[in-house]
Amino acid sequence: MISRRLTDDGRGKWQSILTLGLAATLVMCTALPLAGCRKEEPAPPPPPPPPPPKQTIPEWSEILITVPTIEKVSVDTAVRQDCTKPQMQESIRFVNAFASGDDQALAPMLDSLSQDVLTDLVSQGLWQTETEGIRELTLLNCTGSGGDFSIGFTIATDSGDSQTYTWNAKMRGDTGIFTPFVRMPEEPDEEVATDNGDEAASNDDREGGDSGGGRQPGKGRPERDPRKRVPPQGPDPGDPNGPG
């Protein structure tokens, strides 16, 4: 009986130790997953980078709050613009100074050649005369390409005339520098004499005159059309049929 009791007590003791060991192992597996108790799940892939922010084009209504127009100036707000906010602000400042005839405000916004022209106009009194006749200036558009941009505006005068202008510009710091866009005049088509047409070129060729239409700069005297017969200038003394 004693021997059996000891055996039973020993088996129970070892069972208790085994139970405690399993419990401790479970606790360790739960607390330390890196110990190899369970397979580690792969980390999820990183999210894709956010798309670059889209450049928002401000509306004219937003610009006019910060830079209001003067009484003579209006803006065609229905036209969609693609300039930046500083470019649009400088456009308003430019047309305000132009329409009001404020040469002091306009000069820093002009390129050097245009500044010289403005100085001459002011000294001759022409600048004040011309700008006083502006009845309305309408800013039509502001078109940008990188750091450069251009504006178009129409000027209506008290005399009833109306003309549209284009100025190119670029930002220099916080200031827009404007240059007038000048279209080169097209050369007129050269008039060409034909058999049935203008005889001015052939007459000029015979008489040695210069009618202005048969020559080109740097090319000298034009050649006579070999198909045309030139009448003699007078009777030939050696002609037996001529007057004796």
Number of helices: 7
CATH arch. level architecture of the domain at 60-180: Roll
The poorly predicted ranges are 1-6, 20-32, 209-235
Side-by-side strand order of the widest sheet = 1-2-3-4-5
Structural features:
elongated; 5 strands; 7 helices; alpha+beta; disordered N terminus
Secondary structure elements and pairings:
Blueprint (H helix, E strand, L loop, with lengths): L1 H30 L28 H7 L6 E3 L9 H16 L2 H4 L5 H13 L1 H7 L1 E12 L2 E10 L4 E11 L2 E6 L19 H8 L37
Parallel strand pairs: 1-2
Antiparallel strand pairs: 2-3, 3-4, 4-5
Helix pairs in contact: 2-3
What would you say this structure looks like, in words?
The protein is an alpha+beta fold and 244 residues long. The protein has a domain at 60-180: Nuclear Transport Factor 2, Chain: A, CATH 3.10.450. Helix content is 35%, strand content 17%. The chain has seven helices and five strands, in the order ααβααααββββα. It has helices spanning 2-31, 60-66, 85-100, 103-106, 112-124, 126-132, 200-207, and strands spanning 73-75, 134-145, 148-157, 162-172, 175-180. The protein has a five-stranded mixed sheet. α2 (60-66) crosses α3. The longest helix has 30 residues, at 2-31.
